[in-house]
Design goal:
mainly alpha
Length: 174
């Protein structure tokens, strides 16, 4: 049983319960802002991962036709996604900076997810002793062996094209 996930879910549930105790919706708005910022942080991570994976794949001498799926807009797509998500995330509460005084309570409520994410990410990296992996050192070979597109397409029954009927990431032994 994934106890840590259970503990985290229970903690979030307890925070949600606190929203009923405070009538001004302070806790609710902070939880909402944290979850919204988490979405932007997630998409930033996806853009970075996509960009770095493709760079590592090419630096190690693999070909793009070995991938079961190729994004048409690389490298523009992940770079655009990163810039757009960063702009939207940073501009979430621009109104707090527009008045004669900065509304620090509003800024803190909006960006509370950023230090929360940084604390979890750095904590994980320190506990697990993670390090930055250069593109040349990425372990791509096992992934290519498991997921590479076969040279000859498999014959597919039921009249569907091969890309519809065959799994994108086949599981060995399944």
């Amino acid at each position: 049983m994934p106890r840590n996930a259970l503990y985290a879910t229970t903690a979030v549930g307890a925070l949600c319960f606190l929203t009923s105790l405070y009538g001004d919706k302070t806790v609710y708005l902070r939880l909402l802002n944290t979850s919204g910022m988490a979405g932007f942080i997630t998409w930033l991570g996806i853009a970075i991962s996509h960009y770095r994976f493709r760079k590592g794949l090419l630096k190690q001498g693999y070909r793009l036709d070995q991938l079961p799926y190729r994004s048409k807009w690389f490298p523009f797509g992940p770079i655009f996604a990163f810039v757009l998500c960063a702009v939207v995330a940073l501009g979430q509460d621009y109104q707090a900076f527009m008045g004669s005084k900065i509304d620090w309570a509003s800024v803190a409520a909006t960006y509370i997810g950023v230090p929360f994410f940084c604390a979890i990410w750095l904590g994980y990296a320190l506990v697990r002793k993670c390090r930055f992996v250069r593109c040349e050192d990425m372990e791509i070979a096992p992934w290519i062996e498991r997921n590479a597109t076969p040279d000859t397409p498999e014959k597919v029954d039921a009249g569907y094209p091969a890309f519809v009927a065959s799994p994108a990431n086949p599981t060995p032994g399944a």
